[in-house]
Amino acid sequence: MEDFEAFGALRDPLRRRLYEYVAAQDHPVSRNEAAEAAGVARTLAAFHLDRLAEAGLLETESRRLTGRSGPGAGRPAKLYRRSPEDRALSLPPRDYRTAAEVLAETAEAAGLDEELRRAARRRGRALRGAEPVGGLEAVRAVLARRGYEPRQEEGGTVRMRNCPFHALSEQFPPLVCGMNLALLEGLLEGAEGLRVRMDARPGWCCTVVEESGPSKNNED
Question: Looking at the record's lineage, which domain of life comes first (predicted)?
């Protein structure tokens, strides 16, 4: 029922727009910033942001934006960021997460890491299709469609704010992060001048895509 209520909180167009704005940022968002982005009054933005927080879609924190403390530093601002909790809606209910956890636990216990990586690389190739992905812009589009929320940094590195396998990677990091890397290797195989590598950072996907020399195909 909680997931129904969470999705119901997004029925309002303005509330959904505010949620999408906060979710797209790589920093906690103040009420003023959200209001300006949505083109509405601060009080109206605050109302909808708090409803999203009550529904569990956003998390909040309080912090002085001036960086100062003590008398005269001003009141702490209420800041919002996307909740890391997964939400899913299925009618009738399905429990794919439990099945994935059982399979991951079994693969880890049996030492099937390499077999899993080979399977993930093959799946990545199948998802890519016959033609290699060309260029960083095309790569970002492919990653966005897969739910990775790519962000390009200076120097041509693409980091991903979202890991589609977040819940599993928290429980089985070496197994699932290795699988994720292999999946992306297959997906981007043949993309000239691009490579995928591990570069784990808190709150981000464990992999990055970056410009490099000619790519080396992986043969399985």
Answer: Bacteria
Query: Based on the domain organization, do 53 and 142 belong to the same domain?
Result: no
Q: What residues make up the domain containing 121?
A: 112-211
Which sign, positive or negative, has the C-alpha torsion 91, 97, 102, 107? positive
3-state helix, strand, coil in the chain (%, to 5): 45, 15, 40
Q: Does one domain contain both 119 and 73?
A: no
Same domain, residue pair 61 and 125? no
> 88 lies in a domain?
no
Using the 3D structure, point to which of 82, 102, 134 is the last residue of a domain.
82
The pLDDT profile of the chain, 220 residues, written as one tens digit per residue, is 456 667 778 889 999 999 999 988 888 999 999 999 999 999 999 999 999 999 889 999 998 876 656 555 567 899 999 988 877 666 677 888 899 999 999 999 999 999 999 999 999 999 988 888 888 888 889 999 999 999 988 778 999 999 999 989 999 999 999 999 999 999 999 888 899 999 998 888 999 999 875 444 444 5
217 part of a folded domain: no
Strands (E), the chain: 29-30, 58-63, 77-82, 150-152, 158-160, 194-198, 207-211
The structural domain count of the chain equals 2
Which amino acid does the sequence have at 205? C
Residues 207 and 151 in one domain: yes
